[in-house]
Structure prediction request, 453 residues.
Amino acid sequence: AVVSTQSTGGFSSVAWALFSGQPLVVIRTTIPVVIYTKIIYTISLNWAADGSFFPTFYALIGLANSVFLVIYAVTGASKIMVYCSRSTEEIVGMFISIAFLVDSFKYIAGEFDTYYCADNVTEELVADLEYVCDPKKPLLSLLLIMVTVYLGVRIYNFKFSPYLNAAKRVLVADYALIVAVICATALGSYVFQSIDLKKFTVGDDAELFQLVSFKSPSAVAVLAAIGMGFMMSILFFMEGNISESVVNNPANKLRKGSAFHLDMLVTGLINAVLSLFCLPWVHGSLPHSPLHVRALADIEERIENGHLTEKVVYVRETRLTTLVSGILIGVSVLLIPSPLNLIPIPVFYGLFVYLAITSLEDFQMWERIVLIFTEQTLYPPLHYVRRVPQKIIHCFTLLQLLQLTGLCMVSLSESPYLKMFFPFVIILLMPIRERVLPVLLSERHLTALDGEH
Prediction:
């Protein structure tokens, strides 16, 4: 439900701003958590076909997850993140971007499947199949997604233009998302108001802040909850620590140290509270965390051999942005249902695509994917281009793509029981990088390709 998500975002962000060690990390409900929640609901139907056991099962898994996270924090388990290289971080980040794109593609494909009928469909067939032939709806939905993405990306890239000065260009780029949403909403809700698109809706949240009433779970259900809580804790452990690792990257020149163990503890305690009320879980997220750092950074642009490069000069390390955003997210509940109910659903999927596209520039992996299709004489003057042969660069990129494909196949499969194990696939990326890749490529080349940012 919308209100529960907004309330969760407000509470968790404020708690994170006050108690975390690295407040620049953004915690929120992510797509992998949504995927896992769907798995939990599907499995809970084995105990009650009407879904009534879901709140109990969800709370048990959430509490088990929190216990494991606290254990990880107390035992200093985050030390194993020294084996988490840039390659692993980027594979997980690329997976999040792909998940955003897949979700948006499924939506627009479903709209065309529901409303767009072929020319040879007869009225009798339409009646039999209960078709609702209205091709204007899917076409407008596609248009709104494209408008949201186009405006968002164009305004975001305004910082690279020659207009105004650097500070004002960055200020304009920071409001790309807001301007894109307002323009696309005006287009869908006013210019094409005759076309009835699905809008932002709010469900019944009357029991939002009521404690879960545990319905005498069986021993099998409790054991299943502990097992799934352990797998969920691996997901939280990996994604949370990767988000923190990206934020604390030396390239960001942060003056304050990291706090992996403290933040793991705070994440566990926050999710324990959320579990008791059957509210959505949260953890450090990509690409929001590095985008948050970038918004607080002074970036210097340099031209080297005709290519534009960026370098972080200074980052404002503050808790205020996280605190104020958390308060505003909580206050935004007052905007429900109006005026948020004016926003067409396709605009939200346009935001997913926008986030996926704008996050790509932070991934060296994406940079190397583009190099596969680029003439060698036109390669930018990157450090690894100078130190590593072209074939080795492409070989390393293809190995990363192979790992990314495996992760996507497991996490986006149709089987909920296979999806359960995608946290293990994420953690397997570390031993693959440490044990398998050194057998295939020399350590010297790996250091150049997969060293620090």
